[in-house]
Amino acid sequence: MRYDALVVGGSFAGLSAAMQLARARKKVCVVDAGAPRNRFAAAAHGFFGQDGVPPLKMIADARAKLLAYPNVTFIEGRVASAQADGAGGFVASLEDNRQLSAGKLLLAFGVQDGFPGGIAGVRERWGTSVLHCPYCHGYEFSGRRLGVLIEAPHPPDHAMLIAEWGPATLFLNGNNTVDEEARAKLLARGVTIEPGRIVALEGPAKDLSGVRLDDGRIVPVDALFMVPRTRPSSPIAEQLGCAFDDGPAGPVIRTDAMKMTTVTGVYAAGDVAMPMHNATLSSADGVMAGTSMHRAMVFGA
């Protein structure tokens, strides 16, 4: 079967795009490996009508609703490679050697987070007490002791934002990247600046109680906000020849306002195609990509 659209990635962006295409009565195939970026979080917050719902439940419910459409196929797996088929469409090969053909291709496979080296206990607490987005998780730590770890090239201003939710300590982790003007602004906002290098996070199980520095001190902290470096979860955008831009956390697939990449017929949505990462934004990005793909099917391009 040749699908009208192949969606690579079945999380917030991919499922949102597929829903638009399904309702436009197009044959849609979604391929997903079952490892969404926010699977470590117990609950998603700030999402319209879904505040406090576990991300995996949101995805499962969305998938069930999508599969109610008879023109939708869902495949559990991973796309290993993709290329133009020479007939105006694309062919994708799965890791189990199955091949799929489609007229349009949406890249919604997301990104993988990279954590700073040499700090024990970060990965185990990711999504629970080591966090990325204060709008998603800041409220749950209101008034508690908050840490902020920002590595170059990110400016230290993020610590001023985190201070909205509680008393904040900016950890420079041995990198003196704060100039006098920025330091004065941070201190005026009540942000404590800790220059020492972090060696480990302390606390029972996934909870955080403190940050251990290389001089042996432990700074009491209940949550640590950080901006990890990211990379695409799949190499197929590069295989297809899509251009990338440098985002604040890592490479971002370049798209136009309609979410088409620099390769005609290939679209991208979600974290891999946006500099700002948030489940609501990813879903909206997917809606735009899905409707744009359908319009291209009708009007060309």
Please estimate the helix content: 10-25%
SS-based class: alpha/beta
Instruction: Name the beta content range.
Output: 25-35%
Largest sheet: 7 strands, mixed
Question: Which H/E pattern describes the elements?
Answer: EHEHEEEEEHEHEHEHEEEEEEHEEEH
Task: Give the terminus-to-terminus CA distance.
Answer: 22 Å
- Low-confidence regions: none
In round numbers, the mean pLDDT is 95
User: Can you count the beta strands?
Assistant: 19
Key features?
301 residues, alpha/beta, seven-stranded mixed β-sheet, five-stranded parallel β-sheet, 8 helices, elongated
Provide a compact summary of the structure.
The protein has 301 residues and is α/β, with parallel strands linked by helices. Helix content is 24%, strand content 28%. Helix 1 runs parallel beside helix 8.
Architecture overview:
The protein is an alpha/beta fold. 24% of the residues lie in helices and 28% in strands. The strands form five sheets. Strands 1, 2, 3, 4, 5, 6 and 19 form a seven-stranded mixed β-sheet that branches. Strands 8-15-9-10-11 form a five-stranded parallel β-sheet. Strands 12-13-14 form a three-stranded antiparallel β-sheet, with no helix packed on it. β4 and β5 (90-94) form a beta hairpin. α1 (12-23) runs parallel beside α2 (55-66) and α1 (12-23) runs parallel beside α8 (279-299). It is elongated.
